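Good morning C.,

I know you're traveling, so I'll keep this short. The sequence:
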Amino acid sequence: MFTGLVEGTGEIKRLTAKGPDAVLTVRPPWDLSEAVLGESVAVSGACLTVTGVEKEGFSLDVSAETLSRT
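The tokens, ready to paste straight into the viewer:
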């Protein structure tokens, strides 16, 4: 169960297939300097981990299992 606080709603910038998995890039409504590698982020009810921070937003790896269930 997600017990964190909702800080805002981000904008999906890109979904890139990576074999059966994917990489999701989200632009948050807050300053990207606050994004921390390894931080957990709820995305439409799925808890994902920040794996990269770039100019467009932060990246999250999404497994095939997560893609099939969300």
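Safe travels,
E.
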